[in-house]
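tokens incoming
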């Protein structure tokens, strides 16, 4: 009995294959310390453990411009005012088709405000089956004005680009969802007075933004030699500001045309900075220019003033 309980100062490694559990008592303290260290490290870094180290790819919306469709203006055919007071089935069917194409993504296929895009909009799109809470009202005139002008601070844009008769067709389809106020002869007369339905509607011609920009540049070139101006900027004594101009100018020609047109006469640095921060790309600069200190932007303004004067 005494031999079995006696203390052994060393491990007899030859006996380990027969009794491997004895090794556990030797290695356990090392593993315990290792697990403790790993636990402490994890706890200290747990706030950032779930962070994604792969940088996200963002599209800079400030340099993406929605273009304008090119179209030729003219006089749209006169509209029979009877389609306002007495719409037929064909007109309502046309309105349904136009509604599904232009409106259903937000307002839903049944006009209940549950379209696929509705979840991302605040406030939510109008449910046309409800009679309360209409921002612009529910009369025929109110509905037409909404399509004409949109609703500010919402996802409802203006649809003035849709022909007047098509807008009337959409409204007549909407009015089938529930009871709407009746259209009086006086209201129809007022609509005709405001929008000239019975006389034909004049529409303006549109050109694309690229064409408009080139047109402005061509007109400005008669007064402004852009190559000379750019050379003046590069010869400026303040090389740091010259570097800023060359680094942050997205379109140098546009910068100089817009600057000479909008800011040179006023010589107002505050106006320049406010508009630059609100829309850098509209002034020909990269969006990252808004990160520059105000003092540097003022210095850039002064260099531009001297160059285009």
């Amino acid at each position: 009995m005494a031999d079995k309980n006696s203390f052994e100062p060393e491990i007899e490694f030859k006996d380990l294959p027969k009794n491997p559990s004895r090794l556990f008592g030797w290695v356990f303290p090392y593993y315990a310390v290792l697990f403790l260290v790993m636990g402490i490290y994890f706890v200290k870094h747990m706030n950032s453990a779930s962070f994604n180290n792969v940088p996200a790819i963002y599209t800079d919306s400030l340099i993406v411009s929605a273009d304008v469709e090119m179209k030729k203006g003219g006089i749209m055919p006169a509209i029979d005012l009877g389609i306002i007071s007495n719409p037929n089935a064909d007109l309502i069917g046309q309105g349904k088709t136009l509604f599904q194409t232009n409106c259903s993504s937000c307002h839903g296929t049944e006009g209940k405000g549950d379209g696929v895009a509705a979840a991302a909009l605040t406030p939510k799109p109008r449910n046309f089956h409800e009679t309360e809470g209409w921002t612009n009202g529910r009369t025929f005139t109110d509905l037409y004005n909404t399509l004409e002008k949109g609703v500010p601070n919402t996802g409802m844009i203006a649809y003035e680009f849709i022909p007047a008769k098509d807008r009337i067709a959409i409204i007549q389809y909407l009015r089938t969802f529930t009871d709407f106020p009746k259209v009086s002869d006086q209201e129809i007369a007022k609509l005709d007075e405001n929008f000239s339905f019975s006389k034909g509607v004049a529409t303006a011609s549109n050109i694309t933004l690229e064409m408009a920009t080139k047109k402005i540049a061509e007109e400005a070139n008669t007064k402004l030699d852009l190559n000379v101006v750019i050379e003046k900027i590069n010869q400026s004594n303040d090389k740091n500001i010259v570097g800023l101009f060359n680094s942050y100018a997205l379109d140098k020609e546009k910068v100089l045309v817009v600057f000479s047109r909008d800011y040179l006469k006023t010589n107002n640095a505050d106006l320049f900075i406010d508009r630059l921060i609100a829309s850098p790309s509209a002034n020909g600069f990269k969006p990252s220019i808004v990160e520059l200190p105000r003092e540097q932007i003022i210095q850039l303004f002064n260099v531009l003033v001297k160059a285009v004067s």
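note: The mean pLDDT is 80.
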